Amino acid sequence: MRFALTIIFLASLPQAYAAESTATITSAHTQVQLGPRPYALIDAMTPSALKDTLLACGDKEVKAHSFSIGHRGAPLQFPEHTRESYLAAARMGAGVLECDVTFTADKELVCRHSQCDLHTTTNILQTELAAKCSEPFTPAAHGKPASAKCCTSDITLAEFKTLKGKMDGANENAKTVADYLRGTADWRTDLYAHQGTLMTHAQSIALFKELGVQMTPELKAPEVKMPFKGMSQTDYATKMIEEYRQAQVPPSLVWPQSFNRDDVQYWIDSHPEFAAQTVYLDDRDSDLLFDHRSPRTWSPSMKALADQGIEVIAPPIWMLLDLDKDKKIVPSAYAKAAKAAGLKIIAWSLERSGPLENGGGWYYQSITEAVKHDGVLMQVLDVLAQEVGVIAVFSDWPATTTYYANCLLAPDKKEIKQK
Q1: Are 148 and 180 contacting, i.e. CB atoms less than 8 angstroms apart?
Q2: Could you count the other beta carbons within 10 Å of the beta carbon of residue 329?
Q3: Alpha carbon of 238 to those of 66, 103, 232, 244, 256: distances in Å?
Q4: With 280 labelled, which of 27, 51, 93, 125 sits at a CA distance of 20 to 30 A?
Q5: Of 245, 323, 234, 308, which Cα lies nearest the Cα of 278?
């Protein structure tokens, strides 16, 4: 019989953190609990040597691993960027947690995937703060979908803290606010969606220190004109970094991210202590001519990125994969070129596509013909880790990446012990 073991949590962090962190890690946060999902995915695989290897790891001791990044926490089942979502991800062994960073009307930093997603990720439309939204709720009518637009920049930090997180989603056919908020995908759940505790960026840092994990903040693109009330884009990028300095977090534990290459270049040039782990989230596919199989369509080139001082690149999963003539999943031309340029690679995002029997959707678009069931997810993860050579994978359910890392990857070299 195989068990989802409960093991003492030893996070994969440099020793400097152990010396500088004074937070006591409580017993509730020091357990790695994988739950049944990794086992269900392995059971769904077609017979193979990889399946046999993964099955054989079922009773192996489990530790947190930096290969496993909690993408917005654990939003497959918990409201994203909430305390509850982050705790769930840490308990599943995520060695790195993400706060997407945006700002409020009083220029304070908070964790939200988008500056203007409060209408789909919180209960704002059911509160008095709905009156402050950029665009009020409009019910579906005359063939037009229901809509709203509520931004963190519409409200103050104090007002933001009064909101509750919900599962991201909206019902575009809704006639009422209550129906509009019932938009959770049917392969997710609202079981834990009623008390989501929103987090400021500074609160996320404090929590992550307590949990003993590394941190990967993403500076989100503003949806308001910059400068905003005197705050420039550079001020915004600087403020994010400064909150780690103020919290005395060693730069070796922080992986700043942005889709904006100007942000990335600014951090590299002006905050060199963070440069080695500054992550360029690759948005070159926004060019209509982009083809991940054709280097001449990549602007700038991989070499040009490396020459700019970028050391870590993070594309979506599909850019890193392709199919050979036998429909076997293999590294793409993009993946090979990134490695040849000396770039480290982080992939995003696993467990974000729902059931895979119909090809997997956007994240698997380059290998659709090979994606026929959920078991393919573990095969994809294996190709990313073993053949592409990614250093980490974002996942909406980190137990899956934690299981794989403990089974087939070397243990993290650095560990932080409980105080």
Answers
A1: yes
A2: 22
A3: 25, 13, 10, 10, 11
A4: 93
A5: 308
Distance between CA atoms of 173 and 20, rounded to whole angstroms? Answer: 52
CA distance 222 to 176: 29
Half-sphere exposure for 12 (CA within 13 Å, toward CB): 24
Provide the pLDDT confidence category of residue 265 given band limits of 50, 70 and 90: very high
Q: How far is CA 346 from the centre of its chain?
A: 11
Helices in 341-398 by DSSP H: which ranges?
A: 376-382
* pLDDT at position 30: 57
CA nearest 280: which of 245, 239, 240, 310?
A: 310
DSSP symbol at 346: E
- Report which of residues 400 and 28 the model is more confident about: 400
Contacts of 192 (CB under 8 A, 6+ apart): 77, 78, 79, 84
Other Cβ atoms closer than 10 A to 292: 24
| Distance (Å, whole) CA 347 – CA 380 | 11
Rounded CA separation 317/47 (Å): 24
Q: Pseudo-torsion of CA 268, 269, 270, 271, nearest 10°? A: 30
- Kindly report, residue by residue over 81-99, the tens digit of the pLDDT: 999 999 999 999 999 999 9
Bridge-based pairing of strands 312-314 and 279-281 is: parallel
Whether omega before 301 lies within 30 degrees of 0, making that bond cis, reads no
pTM for this predicted structure: 0.92
Q: What is the DSSP letter of 212?
A: T
The first and second tokens of residue 333, run together, are 């031309």
**Separation of alpha carbons 267 and 287, rounded Å:** 24
Beta bridge partners of 253: none
Alpha-helical segments (H) within 229-284 = 233-246, 261-270
